[in-house]
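Input sequence (527 aa), recorded before submission:
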Amino acid sequence: MTAPDFPFDHVGWLEHPHGIGRVGARHVGRTVAVIGAGIAGTVAADALSAVGLRPVVYDGVGVGGRMRSVPMRPDDPYPAELGAMRFSTRDHLVAHYLRDLGLRTYPFPNPLSPAAPRALVDVGGVRRVVGRGDLPADLAAVDRAWRATVEDVADVGLVGEALAERDAGTVLRIWPKIVRALDEVSLRSVLLESPHFTDRTSRDLFGHVGFGSGGWDTDFDNGVLEVLRVVAAGLDTDHVGVVGGCQQLPRLLWDRTRAATGQERLGGEVVAVVRDHAELVVTERSGRRTRHAAVVCTAPVRHLLVRLRVAEELLAPDVVRGAEGIHYMASSKVLVPVDRAYWLDPGQESLLSVLTDRYPRAVYLFGQSPEGPGTVCLSYTWNDDADVFRGMDAEARAEACLRYLDGVLPGHAVREHRRGPAVAVTWDEQEGCADAFSQNLPGQYDLQRGLYCDFVRPRPPGLGFYVAGDDVSWTGGFAGGAIATALNAVWGVVRDLGGSSPPSNPGPGDRFAELAPVELDPRGPGA
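Predicted structure, token format:
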């Protein structure tokens, strides 16, 4: 179960021995367009092949989407992960595909995690080397305050246990009450009202350092439901990386689709989708037009009304509202290769993971042995912090971060061990992207519900256009959410083309009535 809003067991559905379904006999072998070759698009294509259809995948950039791994040396085990880079072991959909594709993982070095138990914390001009098992009093107090606050505002612990045990009944008993109470509340409001965060200093420290995946201050103005979903599902802890880079996930899925369908190469950038009687016509930028039985679109929903020129008859009003309204977050990174993971030398503490309120915000160290290759992520930033580097090339960004490290960690030796050019990204500047990922503001639950639930909307012939991707999901920026929406869309396509899931293995739409996300009263809480 990827999120409490729709606690369907997608992994159990995928792994059932009777399969996920089959289209009607007269539709077997028909083509379905898949727009976008990121993780949602390649999962959708893989699943469409399994149900008897022939997916045709389009992407003007290439396979990967925001799973973009840039090797900085031959056979690089730790490439520059410009987008997705870490997955919780509790993200069972990601784990399913990692197993299925035979990919190996390593413990991800979040600061103060078991893989990086010591870190430099530099906040408010106070610099300290902190140990995972020996937090100073103020950080320990912030940790306790956060845990207590989460439990005060919602039964997140019970929801998390129910999700882990695939207990949909308990989730549905608790989560709708949380949604009704907190839809219009920001994380900042929760912290301000919490009796556990008694002063601004503790809130600022939590914002800059946080726990799990790092600081939370860039989420302060987002809806608290966005954070509570992540915490309940355990997506902020116990992270792993993928040896050789996470882009292998969509690439290997694409390879499997190519072998199954004979599609030799990706289609180009799609610029328009229109209806022509009982089929959909997809137009590429080159002018090439192709006809399909249905379309699964995994491009950012923000682009549906402008860049893609999708005929509005294909889009339900709820999809249009969501495309116009949901909120996105920016992000940037800069990384450099080093000859070896020298920070793992015995007694070596000259380079540490860093959490700071300064412009790098977070420094991550990748490498499993002192003799093996290493990669240093010199900066990972979100929202306004990502704008600091706007207009600077990769080398200028790297130099700014190295100057910072020179000041706080003398002798860190990145310059000495560096073995190649810097690699950097700012996601809102990338072709085909709408910032890094979606994160809703207070009051936007209904917009997300409209996008997510589109897969169960009945469609007459020729109107089979489906949206999928992490911004359609309940957990923007998390791969498991993107995968779930892709599988939902495939269920919808199968239904529309005369098929179904086996009775012994009902799909997400078959169980929608009992698991549906709560509908809010438009008059507001307490109405």
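Checked by second reader. The longest strand covers residues 374-382.
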